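ENTRY TYPE: paired fold submission
RECORD: A
CONTENT: sequence, then structure tokens
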Amino acid sequence: MTPTTREAQRAELHKAIWKIATDLRGSVDGWDFKSYVLGMLFYRFISENLTAYLNRSENAAGQTAIDYSKLSDAEAEFGRLETVAEKGFYILPSELFVNVRKNAPKDVNLNESLDQVFKNIEGSAKGSDSEDDLKGLFEDLDVNSAKLGNTVAKRNEKLVKILDSIGGLNLGSFENHQIDAFGDAYEFLMQMYASEAGRSGGEYYTPQEVSELLARITVMGKSEVSKVYDPAVGSGSLLLKFQKVLGPGKVTQGYYGQEINLTTYNLARINMFLHDIPYEKFNIALGDTLLEPKHWDEEPFEAIVSNPPYSIKWDGDSNPLLINDPRFAPAGVLAPKSKADFAFTLHILSWLAVNGTAAIVEFPGVMYRGGAEQKIRKYLVDNNYIDAVIQLPPDLFFGTNISTCILILKKSKITNDVLFIDASSEFARVGNKNKLGVEHQNKILSALKERENLAYFCSLVPNGHIAARDYTLAVSSFVEPEMTREVIDIHALNQEISAIVSRQSVLRESIDEIVAELETSS
């Protein structure tokens, strides 16, 4: 498929998704309605994914005429255990998206039917290795919610429209790169809703180009990595950029993340399935990463990317156990209770592999504020953990126009310095947000690779110089901004002023002569 064809198909897909969202949400708030659109997209995906898998298996065994979606439930039962072990879930033919959609207009109990289907899909994994990965995936798709309508009939009418709209999307067949289509549909929906929802949606989603830059930074010089991790995983978009950057199968041991918000936790797991990540290759956990981290047995991680929540509150020094936590103890001080940014940073550093790289989006204040945050910066600099600091352009993220930065950490540096990059001008204005284009990403990555001084863009600073400046890590302290104002030649300006003054004197004398003549003639 040529890039032009792919872009045309993507544009057509986005247009169709936009129409679904605008046509269907009605009285339902846009961000709430996301759960229905994404949930049904996921339901369709796993139905078609399973059907394609089972048909391929039967075809390989010589049963070329079998179509799983057309079997009776009784005929299908024989393969349940083997399929759950391989795919992580099971769906009976009558409960596949295509068949439920076909029968939906005449099903007066459609809401109850769908509710049972979703329970059956999640229940199919009970007692298997995939149970935790499937549990609660349809929790936010409440088919009995009054948001869909005040009566059962109105709710079912809306559900029929959703099924038809999602079923009508041209996502291709599972033999023709369909995963790109499903994954792209998900990403577009997330971006669209985050853009419209502002803070309530934007905090769940990191723009794709920022996610891609973070992933590219952490895998520089590598063709594959073992385990990747995000302690504030959100919808999972950062982790999944490794698949795009490296290619399928190049994250050899899996994707790991933790999320405190239940809705977003479900979105992240759905996102993994929609990008066809096998259930045994991802481990997304629910809970507070700072107080109850869930992946002690899996750390360290070779690549860590994260966009933690900015300056949220946490227990800090009000919890006497935290100062002895092996993640925070080495710094000798805890992040302030009102600003947990560096708590995430120290957690990430602790779980970073010796040969690994971490790229973290940071709130700018942590780069220069005093107190405990200055002491943590001192610990990071004195132990040579900071590889680079990148100042990003403003207005990249949904819900805020603030200029953030990227902190890059490594444990095996061979030089005692930090590269500061001022990428605040590396953007293009697209719509109502700034975007990091590929050319902007490449310029940043080139600077990271070369690690040389470049006027007005990057500066390589010895750790000792940073210490001499009270351990500030603000890029503006080390990279001189380019002077864009016009340079004025003072000597030439003085000559011009003198000429004007002389001309004024001549004109004044002429005026005086004219006035004198007028007075004499009168």
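RECORD: B
CONTENT: sequence, then structure tokens
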Amino acid sequence: MPAFSAQHPIAFFCAEFGIQSDLPLYAGGLGVLAGDILKESARQKIPMVAVGLLYRGEGAVQRITSEGQQIEEDLHFDPLSAGLEHVYVDEMPLFIKVHMTELEIWVRCWKKTIGETVTLYLLDTDTDQNQVHERGIAHALYAGTEEELIKQQIVLGIGGIKLLHQLGIHPSIYHVNEGRPSLLHWQLIRRYMDEHGVSYEQASDWACQKTIYTNHTLVEAGNQSYTAELLKVYGKYYADKMGITVERLLEPGVLEGTDRFSITQYALNTSHKATAVSQLHYLFCQQQWPGYDWTAITNGVFLPYWQDQRFSGDLTASSESTTLSEALWQTHKDCKQQLMEYVQRRTGYGYDPQRLVITWSRRMAGYKQVDALFSDVERLAEIVKNSERPVQILVAGKAHVSDVAAKQTIEKIIRYMQNELEGYALFVPNLDMELDQMLAKGSDVWLNTPELGKEACGTSGMKAISNGVLQCTVADGWAAEVDWTGVGWKLDEKNIPESIYSLLEKEIIPLYYQRDDADIPQVWVERMQRSIGLSEKFSAARMMNDYCDKCYTS
């Protein structure tokens, strides 16, 4: 039986939410996934309240100079014009206080209605009640000093619980989506102690029984740790209110034999169930964090947004194979033309959409290994510039503001595009949801090159298969759950560059250009059909059904 109800909804906490392109509330796949969870919950009428931070767009826009350097610019937006509303209580705008060392930080509250049963609440420190230097706590996503990041987590966790309490919302389940919101337990414990007169231990146990935690990566950068001494400064007030030492408060997150506080360890120790985001990730999580109750729920994507609706329903259900092939191919050609025109508007450069279009599009990070495609640029140039079977390469992705190596990688591959690969490769700047959607619909091949074991799931490829875009991927994350024989191509993770070039030369390019009398690549289209057929298995509908069956139950 579901543990949730309209009176006691699921409280979904996350540091980022990808709801729409013009709201700078997301950095990448985690946020877009969180947005898909809300949209699918609304579609299924699952009662859910979501809590995040209202970032103000500082450094949210990626601009590329003529030399290929990434520069971050601010995205100036008006929350009201972007569809957000002030939260009111008794006809007055709601402001809540969050204690921060000796200061009280005032937090303004906004909301975005996702559907009849789903509302997203956003916490905003940019308000006149705060001192000027405190107004910018949530200006930038995942940027700032260790102390500034801790402040964001306190506003999200403590402020989020206070917000729900002020609104009279009593969740049945608290879903901590990635570790950053996990400090919500400080406020949950205080509330249980105050309302029920129980001990810290009892209140902590109650909070734990109401919480599930989802891990989204094995990569260190996604499992942050902070100096325990610094966190003691911020935790002392809350520990004093609970009548315990600050050391006791932080104990669940302090790594043994160190002075570091791990948000992942804290989240695991303050939840009764932990979920991984793919079957392979589940196995790695059990190895890395043994002794916890892990469940595997592979991510999924919200198909009504990511899939061209012509690829659903009657088009793929046709019983006449010839008609189906023609319909699929014509729809795909339309998507390819639309993508080319969109890229041209963004970059000023177009290309022939009849070419085989290969796309690498995701957050720029070392372990995702975009370099693999360009490791032998002379050989790559020879492949793509073949006059009879030309190839167009598209690359998109932002580097984190402090990731110097990723920025250098962008600069290096853009130099290749300006020289050896000129006319056959483009970098499309400022990857956002709109660009992501267009690429997932209008590419031919979706390239995925992570270090094996570091791509916990990788939802971009799910978006692509729903549109018949064929995968060329390392079998990591969700891709390890598919037999790619006759569907896509599996890369050799031990030698990705050679695997890419060899597959392009011997299989992928010849297959794309192998046409019948109607100029349709029949075998290619058959692979497109099989790819589209995988979509439901990797949909947000299936994912939310899994959450309801395995986690959101009494």
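NOTES ON RECORD B: DSSP finds 18 helices and 22 strands in the chain. Residues 277 and 299 are 5 Å apart (CA to CA).
STATUS: closed
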